Amino acid sequence: MGTTWRALVAAPPAFDRAAARAAVEARLEDILAQMSHWREDSLLGRYNRAVASTWVALPVDFAHVIEAALDVAERSGGAFDPAIGALVDLWGYGPVKVALAPSQEDVRRARAISGYGRMAWDCAGRRLRQPGGLRLDLSGIAKGFAVDAVAAVLERQGCDHLLVEIGGELVGRGLRPDGDPWWVDLETPVEDVRPLRIALHQLAVATSGDYVRGRHTIDPRSGYPVEHAVAVSVVHASAMLADAWATALSVLAPEAIAALARRETLLVRALTRTPAGIEEWISPALRALMEPEEPAG
């Protein structure tokens, strides 16, 4: 995935650190072998090269991610789309870098072979049809899935209190050794916006935007990179869904971010560029968690 992983644990008695690390690395290797856009020999790579009308059987993990990705794609009106690998590659945001921006005709051709609407998904049979030329890219959801998966591995190792991070996406379980929750700061790459600290107690957070890697998020509906999203953070019980929703929301204009977040009752903090400068928006669901509780009676 082109990034690193880290896990902090309040280790139980007789915790075998070496065994836990080996288990995590094996789990991550299995996920990469299925869903990596950066490995030609991954299952995703084989699907992308399959001939038209081929049905590809998916293992449980891959099927779970695809089902979630298609659901968010529908709910977001196509702002999230797992089938824009051709556009990702065209702009040089995938494994192979490009020297020049593509032409309008290049973008048009890539859009013509892209889009989740071209896929046929057999949920019961756990298989996905390749319509011909379509390329999956699960970068906007697979990293979050991996965060959830690593947390589950460590819980099976007896760790009920942990914080897992992969490339800036995090999930917290239980408490720190001092009894506090796992406090994390939402990424705030703007000096005049106040930092926002949240407690990841059985929660995950993912952030999408251009503050680290530049404008690399593509709007699937236009085929062009997004220019307004600085940092859009989503807090959710699932890191996989936090990842997907952060990607979807970062594509949308500020008004559409607010409308979708309200409709889906999402916990969101968005920093976006407007003619007036960088603006911060906090969703009602997240703001409700930040407000002090009224005293009883």
UniProtKB/TrEMBL annotation:
UniProt similarity note: Belongs to the ApbE family.
- GO molecular function terms here? transferase activity
Query: What Pfam families has UniProt attached to this entry?
Result: ApbE (PF02424)
Catalyzed chemical reaction(s): L-threonyl-[protein] + FAD = FMN-L-threonyl-[protein] + AMP + H(+)
Keyword Flavoprotein belongs to the record: yes
Q: Gene3D superfamilies this protein is in? A: ApbE-like domains
Identification of the protein by name: FAD:protein FMN transferase
PANTHER family recorded: FAD:PROTEIN FMN TRANSFERASE, THIAMINE BIOSYNTHESIS LIPOPROTEIN APBE
Its transmembrane ranges are none
Q: Which UniProt keywords apply?
A: FAD, Flavoprotein, Magnesium, Metal-binding, Transferase
Q: What is its EC number?
A: 2.7.1.180
Q: Which cofactor does it need?
A: Mg(2+)
